[in-house]
Design goal:
There is one protein chain. This protein is mostly beta strands. Helices cover about 0% and strands about 50% of the residues. The strands form 3 sheets. Strands 1, 5, 6, 9, 14, 15, 16 and 18 form an 8-stranded antiparallel sheet that branches. A hairpin with a 5-residue loop joins strand 3 and strand 4. The N and C termini lie close together (about 10 Å).
C-alpha cells in the first residue's frame, strides 16, 4: 500500500515572491548587528510557476565571516517543514542556472543552490548548479559555542560517473531525502543518486528550504576573494515535500 503524501510548498504564480513563504536569511554578527543575505541589485521575477533571480554582478562580501561571504543572495522558507519521527521525507525542486561573466568550470566562482538546512543542528544539505555542472554540498556550519573545530565541515561532492548532463538554463529535478529510521541522507538529481550520508551526526526535527546564489572561495589574509566581476541567474519551480 502506497502511503506517500506529497505537498507543494509554493506554486510561484506571481507577480511577486510570496513574502509569507520566503524571506532573506538574516544572521547575527559578532558586533551585535545583523547580516542580510541579499544582493541589492538582484532582480526577482515570478511567473508561470517559476521564480527567477538574476544578479548581473555580485557585490556582497565579508572579510572575516565565511558564511556571509559565501551566500550572496539566499532566500529561506518562512516555515520550517517537519521531519517525521519515523519513515522518510523528500524535499525536492526543479532548478536551472546560468553563470554570468565567470569561469564555467569552477563551481567556486558561482552557483545556484537548492538548500535544506536545520537551524538547530546546523546541518546543511545542498544541490548546486553552475549551469554547466551539478554537485552536492554537505556541511555543518561552525558557530562558536555551538558547533566548533572538527565538528564543523564543508564537503563539495562531484559524482563524475553518475552520467549527469546539463547546460545553462536546463532544469533538473533536485531532491534531498532523509531516511529517519536509518539516519541517512540521500542527494539525487533526476532520480540518480549522486551522494549519500549513511550516518548523520543528528536527525533534524525540521528543515527550512532555501534557494540562492552563492560563491565558495576562502577568505585569505583577512580579505574576501569571492568577487571577480561575475554574477548568476537561478531559476526554481515545483518545490515539494513528500513523506513516506
Amino acid at each position: 500500500m502506497d502511503t506517500t503524501t506529497t505537498q507543494r510548498y509554493d506554486d510561484f504564480l506571481g507577480p511577486e515572491l510570496d513574502s509569507t513563504r520566503w524571506a532573506p536569511l538574516v544572521t547575527p554578527t559578532p558586533d551585535g548587528g545583523e547580516w542580510v543575505y541579499q544582493e541589492p541589485g538582484a532582480v526577482t521575477t515570478v511567473s508561470g510557476g517559476v521564480a527567477r533571480i538574476e544578479v548581473p554582478r555580485f557585490t556582497r562580501s565579508h572579510d572575516s565571516l565565511q558564511s556571509p561571504d559565501n551566500a550572496k543572495h539566499l532566500l529561506m522558507s518562512a516555515q520550517a517543514l517537519p521531519v517525521p519521527g519515523s519513515g522518510s521525507v523528500t524535499f525536492s525542486v526543479e532548478m536551472a542556472a546560468r553563470k554570468l561573466n565567470g569561469c564555467s568550470d569552477d563551481y567556486r566562482d558561482g552557483f545556484a543552490t537548492f538548500n535544506a538546512f536545520d537551524m538547530e543542528s546546523l546541518l546543511v544539505f545542498d544541490l548546486i548548479s553552475t549551469g554547466d555542472r551539478i554537485l552536492a554540498i554537505y556541511e555543518r556550519l561552525g558557530v562558536p559555542g555551538v558547533v566548533e573545530g572538527e565538528d564543523a565541515f564543508t564537503y563539495v561532492i562531484d559524482a563524475p560517473l553518475a552520467g549527469m548532463r546539463t547546460a545553462p538554463d536546463g532544469f533538473h529535478r533536485c531532491s534531498i531525502t532523509l531516511d529517519v529510521d536509518a539516519g541517512e541522507a540521500r542527494f539525487t538529481v533526476d532520480d540518480v543518486l549522486v551522494y549519500s550520508v549513511p550516518r548523520l551526526p543528528a536527525i533534524p526535527r525540521h528543515l527550512n528550504l532555501g534557494m540562492g546564489l552563492m560563491t565558495l572561495s576562502p577568505i585569505d589574509g583577512g580579505r574576501s576573494t569571492s568577487l571577480r566581476g561575475q554574477g548568476m541567474i537561478g531559476s526554481w519551480r515545483d518545490f515539494t515535500y513528500s513523506t513516506f
